Amino acid sequence: MSERPGSRHGSDRPERPAPPRWPSADHTTGGAGDLAVPGVDGSFAPGGVPSESSADSSSGSASPAGGARVVWPEAGQADDVDALDASRVPAVEQTGPMRARATAGSSPWPAAGSVLRTPARSRKRRRPAETAPAYAPHAPAPHAPAPPGVARPTAGAGPWPVAGGTGAAQPGAALPDSWPGRSDMAEVPEVSKVPVHPAAAPAPEPPRTADPVRQLMDTHWELCERAVHPLEIAAGLEAHGIDDRGAVARFRHRDVFSLAEELYVRVPRAEDAPPPPATAPSARNRGTRARTPLLLLPLLPGVLCALLFAALASLPADLPAAVPVAVGAAGTVAVLAAVRPALRLALRPAPQDTRPPGRTWGAALSCCCLLGYALYGDWLLAALLGGGPEPDAFAPVAARPAVPLTLAYAVAPAVWCARLFARRSRRRLAESRGLADFARRVRPLLGAVTALFAVALPLAHTAAALALEGRPPTAGALAGTAALGLLGFASLLLTAHGFAGAALVGTATAVAAEAAVLVCVPAARLPGLGALGRPVELVVSAWGTASVPVSAGALAALALLTYACRVLTGASAHHLRAEH
Amino acid sequence: MVWCDRLLRGLGNHEFEIYALTRGARQEEAGWCDLPRNVARVCVAPLWGPAPAAPEGAADRPGFGRKERRDFEACFRELAAAVCTADPERRPAAGAGSGAGGGPAAPYDPPVAAEPRAVRPLADRFASGLYGLADLAREHAGLPAALRSEPALRILESACRAPGALRAAHSARVADLLAVADRLERALRPLSLDWYGAPGTGSGLAAADLCHAVGGGTAALAGLLACRWYGTPLLLTEHGVRLREHHLASAADAVAPGAAGAPVRALLASFQLRLARETYARAGLITPGDARARRWQEHCGAPRDRLRTVYPGLDAGPFREVGEKPPEPRGAGAGPGAGVRGRTLVWVGPVGPANDLVTLLHAFTEIRAEMPDARLRVIGTAAPGLPGGPGAAPAGTGTGGLGSLGGLGGSGEYGGPAGAESAADYAAAVRTLAARLFPPEPPGARALGTRTPGGSPVSFEEVGGPGLPTLADAYAAGGLVVLSSSTEGFPVSLVEAMFCARATVSTDAGAVREVLGGTGLVVPPRDPHALAVGCLSLLRDPARRARLGAAARARALELFTERQAVEAFRGIYLELMSYWPERDGAAAGAAAGAVPAPFARPPESHLPGAWPGSDGGVTAAARRRPPSASVPSWAGPDDPALAAPSGHGAEDAR
C-alpha cells in the first residue's frame, strides 16, 4: 500500500463525540513524482486561528506545563487548487466498471458523475500528476453538537474551533491554557481524505453523504480490493494516518480493525485473474533474447571437436607419434572444458546449491566413462574375446571419429531441449489449476522434447559420419550413439531439476554394466571361473560387440526417462530458483 | 539492532547467547560490531538463499525414512489445513453499524474476549502441525527438502481446495502453490536448526533460563520451541509488529509488477497470523514498543495481562549539554526576531519518501511569506536507529554492526537495495524542488543573519559535515524541530529533539502523539498549511517554545531514556524467571524426576556470582566460558559451540 506520491490530500477532521467535518486547505503535497509547484500559488493566506488543545497524553505521564497545541488548518484556498486539478485530470467521466462499483454499495453519492474513479486498469499505471484524485473540503455534518464552550464556526467562516469568539485571523493568537473547551478537545480529531469529483470542485458544495466509510472506501479502493485480509487494510489505513481515534470519531467504529473489516467486506476483491504469469514470461523472454549469443555456446564443443579432427588430419605424416597424441589430448581437454559452460546453461533453472555438487560431478564422470567405452570399448572387447589384447597393441587414435564429433555436437540440442522444457513447463506451471492438470500438460511436453532430441541425434551422426568417414554410419553405431546420447540427455534433465542423485544412479549403473562385461571376459580365463565369460560370448556372437554399449545405454536411458516422466511432471521439480 | 546492543550492555550481570537470523547477504557482510563481554555465544542462520543441504547434520540426524515421511505428511496436513482454512466469521456484523448510525461504539471492547471458541480448533491444528514438524526436524534432517517435495505440494493443494478454505486460496494455481511452499520452507527454517541443544547438556536453548525474542513471526519460532520442549519462558519484544509489517509489505507487493498473486499473499498472511497468535498465546510476557503495537497484539489475541509496553530507550547522554542549555540567549527579547537560531527550523532524520520533505518545503514557502528571514536546515542522518513502521523498516541501508540482529524480525520481504536507491532519488528530487522554490538570493542582498551557504534559506546538510559534528549539534542548530513524516514508526528524531529541549511541530503519524504526549504541536500529515501555521505560531513565541521544550525534555527523560528500558527489562527478566518452575538443569543439580515447583527459586538466585546457599550460581560462574568479545562468530571456528546458527537473544543468566 504504497503511499501514493503526488496525490492531493485535504483534511477533514471531526471530533469526538459526534464529529463535524471541518473543511481544510487543499494543497499539493506530492512526493518525488510530483515536484512541480502547482500554480506557484505559494502565498496561502493563513486565515484561521490555530486552536490549542491538549493532545492526548496516553502514555501516562502528566502533561507538563505548556500543554499540547494541536493546530488544524483552515480551508479557503481550495478553489484555485481544485480548478487546477480540474484542468489537469483528463478523464472524469465514469467508466463502466467504476460506475458499477460506485453504485454497488450502499452509497448515497449522487449519481451524476460525482465520484472520481478512473478505470481500474489505467489507475494501476497512472502517473501521479495526471490523475491524482483531488480532495476537497467536506461539508460539515449538520448534526454535530459543539463541545461546551467552543464556538464552532461554520465552514464558510473559517472552521476553527476557537474559544470565546477569538476567531480573529491571527495565526499566532495564543489561547489561554485554561480556556473552557480544553477538556473537550483532549481527543485530537483525526484525519481522513475525502475525494471529490474535479468537475464539481468549483461548485461550492461537494456531494455530501451520510456514509463516511464510503468516502474512505473510494480513497483507498485499490488497497481494499487487493487486500487478502482485513488486517492488511488495517495496516494500510494506519500507514495513511487513520488510527483508532479516527475510527471512533469519524467512522463510528470501535477500532481501526473493525473499520478495516467493514471495508474488506464491502469492497469486492479484485478479479482473480493473476497478472503475474503475464508479466513473468515476458520478462523471461526479454532475458533470453538478450542472451541469444549465449545460446550459441553449446555449439562450441562441436566446433572445437571438428577443429581437432581437422588439425589431426592436416598434420604432416612424418612427425613423431607423440605429436598427434599430444594434439589429441589437448583437443580433448579443450572440448570437455567447453562442455561444462554449455551444460551450465541447462542447469541454471534449478536451485544449484541445494544439490550436493558431488552428485553432478559423479554423473558427469560416469558420462565420460560411457564416452570412453563408446570410443574404445568395442575394440577392447573384441581384443579381449580374441585372447588379447597384445601387450604392444595400441588402440586406434581415431577409430570411429564420427562418434565423438556427434556427441560433441549433441551437447547443443541437449541444452536447447532442456531449456525449452524448463521454460515451457514453467509457463504451464502458471497456467495449470492443479497438480494433476500440470502433470497432464507436462507429460506430452517431455515426450516431445525427448523425441526432438532423439531425432536430432541420428541426423547429427549421419552428417558427421558422411563428413569424416565418407559413408553413412552402421545401424549399430547409430544405435550406440543414440543410446548414449539419450542417457546423457535424461541425466541432464534430471540434474537440471534437482534429481542429480537419480542421474548419478542411472549413469553409474550403465558404467558398471559395461565394466562388468569388460572384467568378466579376462576373469573367465581364471581356472574355475569359465562360466563368467559365457554370457558375454553368447551375446557378442549373436549381436556383435556393439550390442553391449547399446543395451547398457538404452536400458539405463529408458529407466531414467521413465523416472523423469514421473518426477518431472510433478510441480516440485520446477521450484523457482532462490532469488537471493 | 541498536536497542539490543544497549540491552546487552545495560544488563551486564546477565549472560547472553545471541541467536540471529539473517535476511540477506548484505546483513552477513555487515558483520558484527564489538560485542559486550557478557555475550557467551553467537549463532547466525540465514533465512535466505537456497535451502540448507540435508546432509549437514547427517551424523546425528538421519534423513527422512518411510515412517518420517508419513509423520511429516500428517503434521503438514494439519498445518496446511490450519493455514488454508478461513477464520470463522468472528464478528459477523462488524461494520454494519457505521451506516446505520447508532451511538459511537464503546471505545474499547476487549477484542481478546471476543475471540470465539470456534477459532480454537484451528489454532490447535496449527500448533499440533507446527510442533509435530519441529519434533520431526529435531530428530531427523531433511525437513526443508520435505517441505519442497511433491507430497507437500499435494497436501497444500488439497487443503486449498477443501471446503471452508480461504476464498483466495481456491483459485491458487500450481505456481502459487510452489511459491507458498517455498516461503513456508524459509519461514520454518528455524525448526531444523541445531540451536536447541538437549536438556542437561548445558548448551543451546535448553540451558537458557529465558528466551527473549526480539521480534515476532519467524524470529520467535526458536523461542517458541524452547518454550515447548524445555519450558524456557519466552519474552517477546515487538517494536514493529511483525504481522503488521508483513501486511504492509504484502500490500506493497500487490501492486508491484510480477508480484505474487493473491493466493500466495493470502496464504502467507494466514500463516503469519496463526504464527503470531500461537506466539502470543505461549509467550510469558509481551512487550510492545508503543501503543499501536500493543493494539495489534491485543487484536491478534495477546492476553492483556501479559502485555507491558516498554518504550525503546535512547541514550540521552549526547544531548544533555544541548538540552540543559537554554535554547535562546536570555534577554534577546520575546519578539519574533530573537536571534538567528530562533528563526531556524531544523529537520533531522534519514531522508526518504516516508519523511515527506516535500510537504515541509511547501510549508516553508508559507512560513517564508510570513516571516521572510526564516531558515530551514534539513539535516540528514545515516541510518534509522530503531525498527519502526513502514518508514523505517525498509530502509535497512546502514545496518552495520549489531544491525545484523535486525534481521530477526522478518523473512526478507523488503527490497533493501531498492529502498536505498529510492531514498537517494528522493533526496535529489527534494533538493531540486528546494532550488526551484527558493532560488538562491543574489549575494549581499541578505548577508546579515544568513548562515546557510549559498544564500538560500533552505540548506541540506549531513550530520558529521562541517559545523555539525554530532547529532546534538544538529538539534542545537535551530530553535524549532519539525517532523514532517507521513508515516512513522517510533519517531527517534522526535525523542532526540525532546532530549535537546527543543519545541517540536510534528505530523500526526505513528507513535508521534504518544511520544509527544502534549509537549509539542501535532498537525495532520501531508498538510503544508497546517504545518506552516504550527511552525509560525511557535516561531513567533519564544517563551512558549521554551516552555514546550522544557516540558518535552522532562517527559523524554522520564520515559524514553535507555536506563528506563534497561531497568524495565531487568525487572521483567527476573520476574519471568521466578514464575517458572525450577528445571532440572545441570547447574541446579536437582534430582531427576522431581516435580517442578513454581517459585522454588527466588529470582535473585539466577544472578551469576557467589550466592550464599545456592551452589547453582557458583557452578554457573565457574562454568562460564571465556567471553568471545569482539570476535565474529565465524572467526573462531575452533570452538565448536560457536559454529551454530539463528535468531533471537537467548539469555542465560545463571
Describe this structure in words.
The complex is a heterodimer of chains A (580) and B (654). With 580 residues, chain A is mostly helical. Chain A has 20 helices and 5 strands. Chain A has helices at 78-88, 96-104, 120-124, 128-131, 212-219, 221-226, 230-239, 244-251, 256-266, 276-290, 292-295, 300-314, 322-347, 357-385, 402-431, 435-468, 475-496, 500-523, 534-543, 547-567, and strands at 8-9, 27-28, 69-70, 150-151, 162-163. Chain A has a two-stranded antiparallel sheet. Chain B has 654 residues and is an alpha/beta fold. Helix content of chain B is 40%, strand content 9%. Chain B has helices at residues 2-10, 25-30, 66-84, 96-99, 119-139, 143-147, 150-161, 167-170, 174-187, 221-230, 242-254, 262-282, 291-299, 320-324, 357-370, 416-437, 471-476, 492-499, 512-516, 528-539, 542-559, 562-579, 615-623; strands at residues 16-22, 39-46, 210-213, 234-238, 285-288, 344-349, 375-380, 458-462, 480-483, 503-507, 521-523, 648-651. In chain B, helix 3 (66-84) runs antiparallel to helix 5 (119-139), helix 3 (66-84) runs parallel beside helix 7 and helix 15 packs across helix 20 (528-539). Chain B is globular and about 80 Å long. At the A-B interface, strand 2, strand 3, helix 6, helix 7 and helix 8 of A face helix 4, helix 7, helix 9, helix 11 and helix 12 of B. Strand 3 of chain A pairs parallel with strand 11 (521-523) of chain B.
